[in-house]
Amino acid sequence: MRWGAIQTYIEPFLGSGAVLFDVAAQFPHLKILALDRNPRLIATYGAIRDEAPAVIRQLWEWQEQYWQAGETVRRQLYHQVRDRFNAEEGSAADQAAAFVFLNRTGFNGLYRVNRQGRFNVPPGRYRRPLICDAANLLQAQRVFQGVDLRAGDYGSVLGQVDAHTFIYCDPPYRPLSATASFTAYARDAFGDEQQRELSAFLRRCRARGAAVMLSNSDPHNADPHDDFFDALYHDWTITRVPARRSINSQGDRRGPVQELVITNYPVTLPGGAPQQKNWRGAQDRLEEDSLHKNYSSH
Ligand SMILES: C[S@@+](CC[C@H](N)C(=O)[O-])C[C@H]1O[C@@H](n2cnc3c(N)ncnc32)[C@H](O)[C@@H]1O
After folding, report:
1. Residue 237: which residues within 8 A CB-CB, separation 6 or more?
2. What pTM did the predictor assign?
3. 35 alpha carbon – ligand 1 mean position (Å)
């Protein structure tokens, strides 16, 4: 792999796009294709790219209302916006603003839909949430300018993958235990079968000459004998890295867990990666992580 030869960056599980923002800033010459199966998320990014001022105006208005209101009126406003979002009322910019508003004021910033596809997260309780982060939205507008944004299944990008592509996949993580498994009833189930299908897809990308990177949870956090990914990617480079995922509300249970970075090229980490196993409390933390990951798309 000659890194200078990379011309295209593809991220088919976009979510909040944390990696894409970094890549776009560091490598402005790249052609970028970003995809997610959540059409509402992609439409939101599209509206931020194409009409950020209208999105900001609406968010500013709701922020003013929210900050001045007491709890009852705040809840009313939340439900009003949620109903409009579910009815797909208003312009693309209004819909995008609703998506951001619900993300900023809903319970734990979750994104969750019921079987009918209706967003059903209850209101959260915040003192003075930043609903209209204009600087951030304008920066996102700049980053998205050249980005090809698409809604769909990750498999649909295969045609764009060639020897000049870097593809990064951050799929819904594999739950660490049966009790942590929400995949049985989650609408967007991503169980072991889907993880296997994804590995077959990534092998096809590799065969096309692309540089491939995948991240996932490390089953060793919960069970040192669970070699699901080690077996699935036995002929790839598997790097175990500590990840800081502090979503546990009990401070004493916060801390690093181990995650997997799987690549089809060798990786050297600065200083070497710690290879800790079975960290205390890791399973509990990851069960919550799985919940967060399975339901959070932005
Ligand atoms: C773990 S999140 C990605 C997190 C992201 N890297 C970030 O920084 O937030 C997984 C994302 O994959 C999307 N997704 C799930 N199944 C998919 C599929 N089959 N094809 C494309 N996207 C999918 C979900 O909508 C969700 O946004």
Report:
1. 262, 263, 264, 265, 266, 267
2. 0.85
3. 9
